[in-house]
Amino acid sequence: MPLTNLNSAHLTEAQVTAAQNALTELENALAIITVQLTPEDRQKYGSINEQNKLLVNKVKDFRQSNPNLSVSDVDWDEFDKDFASRNVFESLINRLNALAIKLQGAKILHDYDNYQAALDDYAYTTYRAATGADGYENKYNELKQFFGRTTKNFNPPPPNP
Fold first, then answer.
1. How far is CA 99 from each of CA 13, 92, 96, 103, 112, rounded to the nearest angstrom?
2. Percent of the chain having pLDDT more than 70?
């Protein structure tokens, strides 16, 4: 017997509205800094890898401990703002990704529950259509399209001589 109702926790309409409103508020709060890069832009600018993060961190450390060793051509105020923003964004992204993973897990369980219930309903519909119950033949014909049609032609191998 398959497990069913793996996730029976459901949001109320008020909770759904509150979550949607919170996301809208977050989108609005971050609108000033969010950027939609093209695939070409993503390729061009890439992402900073771990080795390069270490370089940036080391340059920042030197800048703080020995500012006289820093090149004057760099806008260090902007560097510090970029560094702080990057840390905030990384933290927000990590939290949002963790939330997305949890939401995907909850959705998977609800999808599984829906699919198992649909299979149960299809099995019952198949049974009722076979008994000639009113309305079930049409429902069966509509639902059977979602199941592959495999033939069960089994040809046993010839016996060994």
1. 20, 10, 5, 6, 20
2. 91
The more confident residue out of 154 and 2 is 2
CB contact at 8 A, 125 and 139: yes
pTM of the model: 0.74
CB 116 within 8 A of CB 2: yes
Rg (CA), the chain: 29
Output 22-30 pairs: Cβ under 8 A, ≥24 positions apart. Answer: 30/92
Tens digit of each residue's pLDDT (9 = 90 or more) over 98-145: 999 999 999 999 999 999 999 999 999 999 999 999 999 999 999 999
Amino acid at 27: E
Buried b (16+ CB within 10 A) or exposed e, 105-143: eeeebbebbeeeeeeeebeebeebbeeeeeebeebbeee
Beta-carbon contacts of 34 under 8 Å, excluding residues fewer than 6 positions away, are 27
